[in-house]
C-alpha cells in the first residue's frame, strides 16, 4: 500500500501532529504498566532447576508423535477418548495421586461427504469442499451459482448457491510487541511475523466477513460456498463453535462449505461464463459422548496449588494444537515426580481439559458454572454436590494457573498457495497476570531459558482475558500464565508433527519450572494483592463486552488505541508504511 491511496482530505502534517500527540499520551499510559519489577523477598533467590530431572526434547516429541498418530482428536472422537487413558497411564507410572477422570458431556461432530459440482455449457466440474460446523446432517442443494458482491440484494441470493470470498484477519507480532512487558527476540526478527490466521469469526476484518455470511444466510440461499480467499490452498478449517459465524442456527439447514482459494478462482471463471448450475453437498453427523477432564496431583511443601494445564481435544489430528500442550504437561509431571515432596514448593495439579475447542466445556465443568450454553446446546454439570464442593475447595486454594499450548513452527503462504516453512518458530505469546512478583518472574524466565521468539503480555491486554485456554480460569479470579502460539494453520487439517516447534519444548519446560520455583514465598493472597487484571464481572461479562467491540480493561483500550494510531486508512490494522515508526516506538519502550 502506498501513501497515494490514503485519504487526502486531511493534510499529512495534521495527521502526523495528531498521531504524535496520541502516541505521546499512550506511551505514558503504556510505560506506567510496562515495568515488571523483580520479585521481592524470598522469591528473589535464584530459582533452582534439577537439570538431570528435565525430560529431553526427544522424549517430549515422542509423546507428541504417539498422540498425533491416533488420528482426529476432536472432542468425543475415538482418539480423544484414547488419549484420556494414555494420560492416566502416564500419571500412574509417575506416581501421581488422586488421579481423576471427571465426566464431561459433549456433542461430537464428524464430517461427512462434502463437495461441489458445477455445470456450465454441458460440462461438469467437481470441487473438494469441507462442511462448516453448524452442518449437522446430510444437506444438499441444486441451484444456480451467484457470486456475492457488495450491494447484492437479498432477492438475488434467495434460492441460489451463493459464493462468497471470505477474508481472514492478519495478525502481526509487531502489534503484540506494542504492549509487551518483555520479549525474547534473539535474532531480532520477531516483528517480521505477520500472517492471516484461520479463525472464522471475531472482530475487525474477519468479523466483517462473518457478518456478510450471516446476511447471506438470512437471504434464504439454497447453499453457501465460502472461499478462503487469503488462506493457504486448503478448505480444512474446523469451523468450531468458538469460531463460528455469529448466527449459526439460522444456517443449520442450509448446506455451507469451505473451499480453497484455487477453487474460488475457478468458480469465478465458471460463473463469469454465465448460467453456472451447482450441486452442493455438505454433510456431518453428531453424537452425544461422555468425555473426561483428566487430572492428578503431586503434593508439595505448601497446600496452595499451582495447576499446570492443557487440553485433550484438537481440530484434526492436532500435533502443535495440542498434543504438544499435553506433552508439555506430561514433561512437568515427569520433572516434578522426581523432586522430593518437601522440595516441591507447592501442591501441583496436572490437568488436561476436554472440549476446549467446542467452547471450553471441560473448563466450565471444573468451574461449576452450572448450566452452560455452548454451540452444541446446553451442557449441565452433572456431578454430585460433593464433587462440586471438592472442585470449589480446590479452586479456592489454586494460586496460579499455568497453561501450556501450541509451540508451532512458522509457515507462510507461498505464491502458489502452499504452506512454506519459514525456518523459525511462530511467536510464542506468554500472557501473565499483572502481579509484579509473577509478571517479573515470567519475563525473567523466558529470557533465562531462551524461550524462542516469545512476547510476554498482560493477561487482559487483548480484550479482557488471555486469548487461550486459560481464559475461563482468569475469569474465575485465578492468576494465570499462558503460553500459546497462533500460526497461520491454527485450526487447519495441516497440523501434523512437522508443525511443532520442537526446539522450544525444553525451553518452555524449563521456563515453567523456573516460574514455579520463583513463586516460593508467594501465596494466592500475595499475588492477588498486587494484581489489577482480575476481571470484576466474571468471564461471561468480560467476554460479552469484548464481542460487542468494547475493550474491557484500561490496558486493552490503551493497546488498541496505540496500535491504531499507526492506522491512517481506517482498516483497524497497522498501515505497512507505519510499521517502521511503530517498531521504533516499541524498541524504545522495551529498552527502558
Ligand atoms: Zn490449544
Structure, explained:
The chain has three domains: 3-34 and 563-591, no CATH class; 49-108 and 288-524, Zn peptidases (Aminopeptidase, 3-Layer(aba) Sandwich), CATH 3.40.630.10; 113-282, 3-Layer(bba) Sandwich (Glucose Oxidase, domain 1). It starts with 11 loop residues before the first helix and ends with a helix. Helix 11 runs antiparallel to helix 13 (505-518). The strands form five sheets. Strands 1-13-15-14-18-23-21-22-8 form a nine-stranded mixed beta sheet. An eight-stranded mixed beta sheet has the order 3-2-12-5-6-10-11-4, with helices on both faces. It is of the alpha/beta class. The chain has helices at 12-34, 57-68, 78-93, 154-157, 173-177, 204-218, 261-272, 319-337, 361-366, 385-396, 436-448, 471-475, 505-518, 524-529, 538-547, 554-564, 579-591, and strands at residues 97-111, 115-120, 123-128, 130-131, 139-147, 161-166, 170-172, 182-184, 194-196, 223-228, 256-259, 277-282, 284-298, 305-311, 347-353, 372-374, 377-379, 398-404, 409-413, 419-425, 428-432, 454-458, 480-485. 33% of the residues lie in helices and 23% in strands. It is built from 17 helices and 23 strands.
Topology:
Blueprint: H1 12-34, H2 57-68, H3 78-93, E1 97-111, E2 115-120, E3 123-128, E4 130-131, E5 139-147, H4 154-157, E6 161-166, E7 170-172, H5 173-177, E8 182-184, E9 194-196, H6 204-218, E10 223-228, E11 256-259, H7 261-272, E12 277-282, E13 284-298, E14 305-311, H8 319-337, E15 347-353, H9 361-366, E16 372-374, E17 377-379, H10 385-396, E18 398-404, E19 409-413, E20 419-425, E21 428-432, H11 436-448, E22 454-458, H12 471-475, E23 480-485, H13 505-518, H14 524-529, H15 538-547, H16 554-564, H17 579-591
Parallel strand pairs: 5-6, 6-10, 10-11, 14-15, 14-18, 18-23, 21-22
Antiparallel strand pairs: 1-13, 2-3, 2-12, 4-11, 5-12, 7-9, 8-22, 13-15, 16-17, 19-20, 21-23
The protein binds zinc ion.
Zinc ion (ZN) binds at residues 311, 321-322, 325, 405-406, 469.
Amino acid at each position: 500500500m502506498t501513501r497515494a491511496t490514503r485519504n487526502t482530505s486531511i493534510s499529512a502534517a495534521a495527521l502526523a501532529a495528531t498521531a504524535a500527540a496520541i502516541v505521546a499520551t499512550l506511551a505514558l499510559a503504556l510505560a506506567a504498566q510496562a515495568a515488571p519489577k523483580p520479585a521481592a523477598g524470598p522469591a528473589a533467590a535464584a530459582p533452582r532447576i534439577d537439570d538431570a530431572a528435565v525430560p529431553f526434547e526427544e522424549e517430549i516429541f515422542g509423546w507428541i508423535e504417539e498422540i498425533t498418530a491416533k488420528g482426529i482428536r476432536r472432542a468425543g472422537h475415538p482418539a480423544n477418548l484414547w488419549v484420556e487413558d494414555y494420560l492416566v497411564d502416564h500419571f500412574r507410572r509417575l506416581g501421581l495421586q488422586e488421579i481423576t477422570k471427571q465426566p464431561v458431556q459433549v456433542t461430537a461432530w464428524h464430517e461427512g461427504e462434502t463437495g461441489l459440482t458445477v455445470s456450465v455449457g454441458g460440462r461438469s466440474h467437481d470441487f473438494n469442499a469441507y462442511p462448516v460446523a453448524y452442518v449437522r446432517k446430510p444437506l444438499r442443494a441444486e441451484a444456480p451459482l451467484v457470486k456475492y458482491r457488495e450491494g447484492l440484494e437479498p432477492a438475488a441470493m434467495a434460492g441460489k448457491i451463493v459464493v462468497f470470498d471470505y477474508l481472514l484477519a492478519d495478525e502481526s507480532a509487531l502489534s503484540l510487541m506494542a504492549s509487551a512487558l518483555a520479549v525474547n527476540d534473539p535474532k531480532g526478527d520477531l516483528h517480521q511475523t505477520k500472517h492471516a490466521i484461520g479463525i472464522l469469526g471475531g472482530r475487525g476484518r474477519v468479523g466483517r466477513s462473518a457478518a456478510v455470511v450471516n446476511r447471506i444466510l438470512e437471504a434464504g440461499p439454497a447453499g453457501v460456498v465460502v472461499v478462503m480467499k487469503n488462506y493457504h490452498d486448503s478448505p480444512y478449517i474446523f469451523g468450531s463453535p468458538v469460531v463460528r459465524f455469529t448466527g449459526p442456527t439460522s444456517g443449520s439447514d442450509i448446506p455451507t462449505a469451505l473451499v480453497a482459494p484455487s477453487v474460488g478462482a475457478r468458480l469465478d471463471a465458471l460463473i463469469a461464463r454465465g448460467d453456472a448450475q451447482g450441486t452442493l453437498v455438505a454433510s456431518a453427523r453428531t453424537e452425544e459422548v461422555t468425555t473426561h477432564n483428566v487430572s492428578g496431583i503431586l503434593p508439595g511443601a505448601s497446600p496452595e496449588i499451582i495447576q499446570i494445564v492443557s487440553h485433550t481435544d484438537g481440530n484434526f489430528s492436532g500435533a502443535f494444537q495440542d498434543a504438544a500442550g499435553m506433552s508439555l504437561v506430561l514433561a512437568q509431571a515427569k520433572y516434578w515426580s522426581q523432586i522430593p515432596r518437601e522440595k516441591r514448593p507447592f501442591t501441583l495439579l496436572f490437568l488436561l481439559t476436554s472440549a476446549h475447542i467446542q467452547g471450553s466445556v471441560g473448563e466450565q465443568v471444573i468451574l461449576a458454572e452450572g448450566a452452560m450454553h455452548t454451540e452444541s446446546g446446553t451442557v449441565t454439570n452433572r456431578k454430585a454436590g460433593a464433587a462440586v464442593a471438592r472442585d470449589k475447595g480446590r479452586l479456592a486454594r489454586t494460586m496460579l494457573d499455568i497453561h501450556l499450548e501450541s509451540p508451532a513452527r512458522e509457515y507462510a503462504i507461498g505464491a502458489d498457495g502452499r504452506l512454506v516453512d519459514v525456518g523459525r518458530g511462530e511467536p510464542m505469546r506468554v500472557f501473565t497476570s499483572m502481579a509484579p512478583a509473577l509478571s517479573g518472574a515470567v519475563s525473567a524466565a523466558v529470557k533465562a531459558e531462551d524461550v524462542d521468539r516469545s512476547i510476554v503480555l498482560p493477561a487482559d491486554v487483548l480484550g479482557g482475558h488471555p486469548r487461550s485456554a486459560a481464559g475461563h480460569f482468569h475469569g474465575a479470579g485465578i492468576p494465570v500464565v499462558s503460553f500459546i502460539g497462533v500460526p497461520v494453520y491454527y485450526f487447519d487439517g495441516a497440523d501434523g508433527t512437522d508443525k511443532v516447534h520442537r526446539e522450544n519444548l525444553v525451553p518452555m519446560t524449563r521456563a515453567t519450572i523456573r516460574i514455579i520455583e520463583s513463586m516460593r514465598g508467594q501465596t494466592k493472597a500475595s499475588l492477588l494483592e498486587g494484581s489489577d487484571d482480575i476481571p470484576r464481572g466474571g468471564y461471561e461479562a468480560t467476554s460479552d463486552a469484548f464481542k460487542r467491540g468494547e475493550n474491557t480493561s484500561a490496558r486493552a483500550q490503551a493497546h488498541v488505541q496505540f496500535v491504531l494510531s499507526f492506522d491512517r486508512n481506517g482498516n483497524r490494522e497497522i498501515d505497512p508504511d507505519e510499521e517502521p515508526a511503530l517498531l521504533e516506538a516499541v524498541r524504545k519502550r522495551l529498552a527502558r
